[in-house]
Amino acid sequence: MTQKMVQESDRFQDPIEQHPGYAETESKIAIWGHPLHAMSVAFPVALTFCAFGADALYWLSGEPFWAQAALWAAGTAFLFGLAAGATGTMELLMVPGIRIRAPAWTHFVIAVLLLSLLGANWGYRLTGYEAAVLPYGILLSGFNVIVVIATGWHGGKLVFDYRLGTSKGS
Ligand code: HEM
């Protein structure tokens, strides 16, 4: 019976878990042990919310200031998002235990969708930031808020559930 159970467990071993780098998940893109990706994601997340907030205030007040603020928030959300994406991509490609896990690639796909939406939101406003707000600018900003929440939540899962990019201590 025991022999049979051992054979069964041998048959269902996950080949991914057998990979030599599977347990190697510590961040490599870090300053003094502090992962750059975790440090940089706060900026695009906050600025995505700011773009939506500025659009909503323009809708309510009609003040051109808010349309211009939305243009700047959308642009900086995109640029800081690219920087955060670069640190995340380096982590993904350089750390074997991150590279081999499917959820890390899922996060990459959601994040690239987010970055293209952030870029679209900025680019759309460049030819006339006031006219762009209603209705498509604010709709895009609102959708971006939903996608940034999904991206951040999923990134949090990588860290808190899978312990990716964390330190194992000395
Ligand atoms: C585009 C390529 C991206 C890749 C390949 C990527 C990859 C990763 C990886 C591997 C982690 C696990 C922690 C680590 O190793 O540092 C992570 C965490 C995270 N990511 Fe990304 N990421 C990307 C873009 C983004 C973007 C654009 C955002 C949001 C604006 C984002 C939000 C997060 C968050 C919030 C965490 C959790 C950080 C923490 O709690 O410490 N990621 N990402």
Automatic annotation (TrEMBL):
Q: Does the keyword Transmembrane apply?
A: yes
Which keywords, in A-to-Z order, does the entry hold? Membrane, Transmembrane, Transmembrane helix
Q: Where is the DUF2231 domain?
A: 33-167
Q: Which InterPro entries match?
A: DUF2231_TM (IPR019251)
Residues crossing the lipid bilayer are 36-59, 65-84, 105-124, 136-160
Entry annotated with the keyword Transcription regulation: no
Name of the protein this chain belongs to? Putative membrane protein
Species the sequence originates in: Rubellimicrobium thermophilum DSM 16684
